[in-house]
């Protein structure tokens, strides 16, 4: 089952061109910081090999017009 979410790209915690690198960045961030929300590793739906890490709570509705919004596919979740 594929799950899509929307984020403002400026809210990302980390970016990488490799899923393993993005996941590693998320794990490091999780270890060093008390998390406010689960972290999710997502893949850009329009670009191949483009991954980002976001707080799950920062997901946006599709009708948000105030900021640039990009559609991502959820690849992994890291709970606090």
Quick structural overview:
The protein has 80 residues and is α+β, with helices and mostly antiparallel strands. The protein has 1 helix and 5 strands.
Q: Return the structural class.
A: alpha+beta
How is the biggest beta sheet arranged? 5 strands, antiparallel
How much of the polypeptide forms β-strand, as a percent range?
25-35%
Q: How many domains, as an integer?
A: 1
The low-confidence parts are none
Basic shape = globular
Q: What is the CA-CA span between the terminal residues?
A: 23 Å
Helix content estimate: 10-25%
Written description of the protein model:
The protein is α+β, with helices and mostly antiparallel strands and 80 residues long. It has one domain. Helices cover 18% and strands 34% of the residues. Strands 1-5-3-4-2 form a 5-stranded antiparallel beta sheet, covered by helices on one side. It is globular, with a radius of gyration of 12 Å. The mean pLDDT is 89.
What are the SSEs and their pairings?
Layout: E1 4-7, E2 14-16, H1 19-32, E3 39-44, E4 51-55, E5 70-78
Antiparallel strand pairs: 1-5, 2-4, 3-4, 3-5
Name the descriptors.
80 residues, 1 helix, single chain, alpha+beta
């Amino acid at each position: 089952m594929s799950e899509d979410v929307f984020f403002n790209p400026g809210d990302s915690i980390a970016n990488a061109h490799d899923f393993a690198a993005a996941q590693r960045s998320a794990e490091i961030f999780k270890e060093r910081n008390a998390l406010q929300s689960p972290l999710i590793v997502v893949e850009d739906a329009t670009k191949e090999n483009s991954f980002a890490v976001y707080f799950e709570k920062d997901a946006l509705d599709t009708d948000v017009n105030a900021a640039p919004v990009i559609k991502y596919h959820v690849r992994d979740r890291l709970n606090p």
